[in-house]
Structures are given as C-alpha cells and as structure tokens.
Write a structure and sequence with these properties.
Glucose Permease (Domain IIA); 417 residues; mainly beta; 6 helices; Nuclear Transport Factor 2, Chain: A; 3 domains; 10-stranded antiparallel beta sheet
Length: 417
C-alpha cells in the first residue's frame, strides 16, 4: 500500500460577524449601459531568460537604453552578481502608466528573488534580495518494495514522493541498510518530512523528521533531534545515534554486487586464481562514487591494473580504496580533507577490468578485511545524553503519532522461542 497524507497548518482567513445586530448597508441599484474600456495603470512583461543572455542584453531587448541599463546593473551589484543570471529562470518587468520602467523581478532560486525598482521614474534604482513567502507543511507517506517498484527511488515515486526525499531517507539509514543490495520484496517504509510551498505550486523539500523501515524482518527507526550545543542528528527509538563511521555503500542506488571478498578467485582478465580483496559493484559508467567516511586523501592517481584509484585514510586505522574509476572528481588534492558522502570519482573500467564497475576495498591496521562483514561491527556515534532523553522522547512520540499513528512508543517484545 502506498499513501500520502499532507498535514498543513490552518490559516485564519477571516472572521464573520453573525447575530450581533449588524445590518447590511443598502446596495446601489444596477444601471445598464455600455462597457467602458479603462486603460490599465501598468504593463507587465513576463518571460524566461534566454540562452547566452547577459543582464545588459536582456534589458536591451526590452528597449532599455545602454546608460540606464548600466545604472540598473551598478545599483544591483551590491546584492546580486549579474554573472549569476541563469537561462530558463523566469523574470518580470513592470512599466508605469507613462510607459517608463518601474520594477524588475528575477527568480534567483527556490528561496529568494531579486527585485530592482525605480519608483520615481528618475533612473534611481533600489535593489534587494527578497525571501519568498512559503507555507511549511509536514507530509507523511508510506511505501512498499514490490517487483514493479524494487528500489527505494521507485517505491517513493510510486507513492507520490520525490527523489529528494528518497535520498534524504537513504542517508538516515545509510549505515544500517545497503540500498544497493539489501532490499527485499515486501520491505516497507514510512517517512515524515517537511516541504515548503509557495504560490500553491512550487515545492521545495526540507528535513526528514522521522522514518521507519521494515527491512527483511528488521524494524528500523530514525528520528531527527537536535542535541543542544551539538547540532541535529538522527537517533533510534532508544536515543542511540544512527550515524556510523562508515556509510553502507560507496555508490548511490541501483548497482549490484558482482564479486565478493575472496582469498581465491578466478581473475576475469588474467584467468588465474588470486585473492580478491574487495567487493565489486556493477554500475553504469559515470555513476558517482562517494567517500564512505570522513578522511584524508592519500592519493588520486592511475595505479596499474587498479586503474584510476582513490585512496583515503580514516581514523581507527582504516584506509579505503576505490578502483577502476573513469575519472576523478574536481578539486581533489593530496592531504585534503574529504567528507563522508562527498563525490570523489566516477565509475569506469580503467586498468584490468572487463567492464564498468567499482572495486571497493577497505584495510584495517594494515590488513584488507571483508567490507560486507566489517561494516556491521562498527560502533555507533554518541547517543542522546541522559539529561536530554525526556525531551528526545517527546519529539520521538510526536513524530511516531504523525508517522504511523502510534503514541507513545511501545517496545516490541523480543521473540524468546
């Protein structure tokens, strides 16, 4: 079953006065006569920025003289760099009764628009970035992994959700579920998230507030809670951190495991048996490869049969290796700090490879280990401090009520059979 419930704030639109002794004023009698044309006070032009346009060329296309356009741009520079003008973004020009320019509006992004005004018609411009007025909503939805919708992306979209929500939800459970390999038919999920609506049409997505995932019989929960002085994080029902040192996978959705860790594997190119010290993920060429943990870049360079390879150093004696990349992400330099989830390269087939895939390896204290078992043994992050547990439980129970209609949280009894 897929469902979507929108929980919106109530807006007070007006108050009616009833039974208080007020009488409606008499209405004037209607008079018949010909329609009279009234010349509009203003003229509005709305369009989208064309390709390869500059702000000066855009204003010139609307008959603004070069000297006036120059004054316009100079007045705007303190609040908006004209080089940030983007093709396809909507804009609006307003002209007064005398035909003179009065106001320009340009959609900057989902949060702000640029407004430049000449209220007096004297070519003295005032510019400002203005926040869009938005209505914040909380949306609860459910989904199920089926044969037709066998990924979190597909199940989310089938239920009326968006890819942005699926990606945020995957980050919540990123240390618990490898969404590339561990989803099963009949797995189900529920998610409570924020969205912001402007003009009743344009929607942007905020934080995932709570999520539940039933994965192969495991019931997982994640709740967003901000520990005072520590910033927001996600915690399970008992206040344990959902964050682990490592993510569950170095790739986004949809790849599959094509070869596992082995001390004796037939090499597909060399034709000899040798150790395979990593996990191969099959994925289309160009798929993003991400760092599974915070670390320091040791190297990003060609490496013989390993092809283009990135090597990262992490805490607690760990190193990770990403092999056969088609290319490296821009800006990588030796010794630089790399953040968990940061793009470090793209899937390819460089070196000794029969096709595009990622050979991912992890080394602990000088010895390569099986990634698929090692990640299960990693300790969680810091839990909710005892002095904040009551506040966390209140947040958790409110979220559960909206998420699955359950309040307060009742632990499921362990199976003792």
């Amino acid at each position: 079953m897929l469902g979507r419930v929108c929980i919106v704030p109530l807006l007070l639109l007006g108050v009616g006065l009833v039974g208080c002794g007020f009488e409606e004023p008499p209405q004037p009698e209607a008079t018949a006569g010909p329609d009279i044309y009234l010349k509009p006070d203003t003229r509005v032009v709305e369009d989208q920025v064309p390709r390869n346009a500059t702000l000066a060329s855009l204003l010139g296309s609307h008959d603004m003289s070069a000297d006036v356009a120059y004054a316009f741009v100079e007045a705007m520079r303190p609040v908006f760099d004209p080089r940030r003008l983007r093709s396809g973004h909507p804009y609006k020009l307003v002209y007064g009764p005398d035909g003179q320019f009065r106001q320009f509006e340009y959609h900057v992004d989902d949060d702000q628009f640029l407004q430049v005004a000449d209220q007096t018609g004297s070519h003295v411009f005032e510019a400002a970035l203005i926040d869009y007025e938005k209505v914040r909503e909380q949306v609860a939805m459910r989904g199920e992994i089926t044969r037709d919708n066998n990924s979190l992306f597909a199940a989310m979209v089938a239920g009326g959700g968006q890819i942005e929500v699926a990606m945020a939800m995957a980050q919540v459970f990123g240390a618990e579920i490898d969404f590339n390999t561990e989803l099963r038919l009949d797995d189900s999920f529920a998610v409570l998230y924020e969205q912001f609506v402007r003009d009743d049409v344009h929607v942007t997505y905020g934080d995932v507030l709570a999520a539940a995932f039933d994965n192969d019989g495991r019931q997982l929960y994640g709740f967003r809670y901000e520990v005072p002085g520590a910033g927001p994080g996600y915690f399970d029902v008992d206040g344990r951190s959902m964050k682990r040192q490592f993510l569950a996978s170095p790739l986004p959705f949809e790849p599959r495991i094509t070869s596992r860790f082995s001390n004796r594997r037939l090499h597909p190119v060399l034709g000899t048996h040798r150790a395979h010290l990593g996990v191969d993920y099959g994925a289309p060429a160009g798929t993003r490869v991400i760092a599974i943990a915070d670390g320091t870049l040791v190297s990003a360079a060609p490496s013989g049969g390993s092809g283009n390879m990135v090597r990262l150093r992490h805490t607690n004696g760990y190193h990770t290796y990403y092999l056969h990349l088609s290319r490296f992400a821009k800006g990588l330099r030796r010794g630089a700090r790399v953040m968990q989830g940061q793009t470090i390269g793209y899937v390819g087939s460089t070196g000794l490879a029969t096709g595009p895939h990622l050979d991912f390896r992890i080394r602990k204290n000088g010895t390569f280990v099986n990634w698929l078992t090692e990640r299960r043994n990693l300790p969680p992050g810091e839990p909710v401090p005892p002095e904040h547990m009551v506040a966390f439980q209140e947040v958790r129970d409110r979220a559960l009520e909206l998420l699955i209609g359950q309040r307060p949280y009742v632990p499921v009894a362990a199976n003792t059979q």
